Amino acid sequence: MNYNCILGKLISEHTSPITYFLESGNEKININQWLGKLVRISYAGEIYCIKCGKRTKTSFQQGYCYTCFTSAPETEECVFRPELCRAHEGIARDMEFAKAHCLIEHIVYLASVDHIKVGITRHTQIPYRWIDQGAEKTRIIARTPNRYLAGCIEVALKQYLPDKTNWRSMLTNKVEKEPSFDAIFDKVASVLPSDLLGYLSENEQVVDFQYPVNAYPQKVKSLDLEKQPDIEGKLSGIRGQYLIFEDGGVLNIRKFGGYKVSVNVE
Questions:
Q1: Phi, psi angle pair for 187, to nearest 5°
Q2: Each residue's pLDDT expressed in tens, for the chain with a length of 266 residues
Q3: DSSP the chain
Q4: d(Cα 80, Cα 147) in Å, to the nearest integer?
């Protein structure tokens, strides 16, 4: 099987295990079927902006040309620092975009990946955001009417909970033993500033995820299409946005958004 495509994030469905798809033109390819097969990915040396489609020498923020990186609403600062969002004050690069992406219900959640971390996402991104992070299980702890308030809760909790994932631990399936989600929720309720307590959401269900992984490697090494334009190996698993190869090589597909590649599967 041979495919030519411009890389974007892997598409997922919450099945057991998770089903992953790669887009090639108008086709969605079920890549769970690649497990156990030899996969070759060859970078053609061309990058196209995932926003405007223009060819670019350098990819910014996982797939944007410089112009879109500095002007598109998808790359505004509050994407990574939601507490800086000002859409609720009528300030944004694109207010129509903000109405659809910032001024809607946001979720603050706990996710068990390599450890329990705190995160936020739009309600429309559930459960896809959790799958993209490679979470084993998750629990909603708060619901807010906009991105800014969710960011304020996340910032308040960062001194008690991490907000980053150790991707090496995730891809070797090394999960630290943690207190229960209920115990952490009780802690959250005791430390959150009083003006944010009203957004806490009790009695939320824990959501579990299983990933299509035949075997986790003992050690992993990050693969880079710029340094190694031809990648080849037997695929042993998919988790988050990573392809996991039998030799421990792992490729973060989303990191190379906009890269033109050919894929051969045997």
A1: -65, -45
A2: 899 999 999 999 999 999 999 987 788 999 999 999 999 999 999 999 999 999 999 999 999 999 999 999 999 999 999 999 999 999 999 999 999 999 999 999 999 998 899 999 999 999 999 999 999 999 999 999 999 999 999 999 998 998 888 999 999 998 877 778 989 999 999 999 999 999 999 999 999 999 999 999 999 999 999 999 999 999 999 999 999 999 999 999 999 999 999 999 99
A3: -EEEEE--PPEEE--SS-EEEEEETTEEEEGGGGTTSEEEEEEEEEEB-TTT--B-SS-BTTTB-HHHHHH-GGGSGGGT-GGG--GGGT-SS-HHHHHHHTSS-EEEEEEESSSEEEEEEEGGGTTHHHHHTT-SEEEEEEEESSHHHHHHHHHHHTTTS-----HHHHHTT-------HHHHHHHHHHHS-GGGGGGB--SPPEEE----BS---SS-EE--TTT-SEEEEEEEEEETTEEEETTSEEEETGGGTTEEEEEEE-
A4: 11
Q: Which amino acid is at 180?
A: S
